[in-house]
Design goal:
The chain has 166 residues and is of the alpha+beta class. The protein folds into 3 domains: 1-71; 72-132, no CATH class; 142-166. Helix content is 57%, strand content 10%. The protein has 6 helices and 4 strands. The protein has helices spanning 28-36, 53-64, 74-82, 85-108, 118-127, 135-165, and strands spanning 7-11, 17-19, 24-26, 41-45. Strands 3-2-1-4 form a 4-stranded mixed β-sheet. The longest helix has 31 residues, at 135-165. It is elongated and about 80 Å long. The mean pLDDT is 81.
Length: 166
């Protein structure tokens, strides 16, 4: 098993969890400690093989860290419950992309001042650029910005011409 592979935990009918990496039964608290230690877990039902990871991690958050539920505004929870298949798919993709970006920030040291502004996170994410651009990337963005400014000026001039001809 490589260090990137999730730790397999099986849940038995008696609601006990068995961690394959230690060959021991573990509690929800110990599963939480595994995750906090930087490891991913994959929790499977021992009889059906169903993936229970999402449900168990949610249970840990709800029981042991209810204050973290405040991350999800009530309006968002209502929205999720009301969403149809298309919107659910959109939200799933959005959260996956967001979690990928947040993981990137965490690995790159989000404590730097450029990451303290959440709007900077969003701008960087939307730009699809690195938070610490290379000189080439910065000059490309500057050139793109200048070209866009020229185009806006041209459009504004054209609009003035159209307005004056009416």
């Amino acid at each position: 098993m490589s260090s990137d592979d999730p730790i397999l935990v099986k849940r038995y009918p008696n609601r006990r969890y068995y961690a394959s990496n230690t060959s021991k039964y573990v509690s929800l608290r110990e599963i939480e400690e595994i995750v906090q230690g930087g490891h991913d877990v994959e929790i499977r039902d021992s009889q059906t093989g169903d993936d229970l990871t999402r449900a168990v991690l949610t249970q840990i958050i709800m029981e042991r860290h209810p204050e973290k539920m405040a991350m999800f505004p009530t309006d968002l929870l209502h929205f999720v419950l009301r969403s149809n298949d298309v919107m659910s798919s959109f939200l799933r993709d959005y959260f996956r992309q967001s979690s990928t970006y947040l993981d990137y920030l965490q690995r790159r040291g989000a404590a730097t001042t450029e990451f303290l502004n959440p709007m900077q996170w969003v701008k960087t994410w939307l730009d699809g650029s690195s938070p610490t651009p290379t000189d080439d990337a910065a000059s490309t963005r500057t050139a793109d910005s200048a070209a866009l400014s020229r185009r806006v000026e041209q459009l504004e001039e054209r609009l003035k011409q159209l307005e004056s001809s009416e």
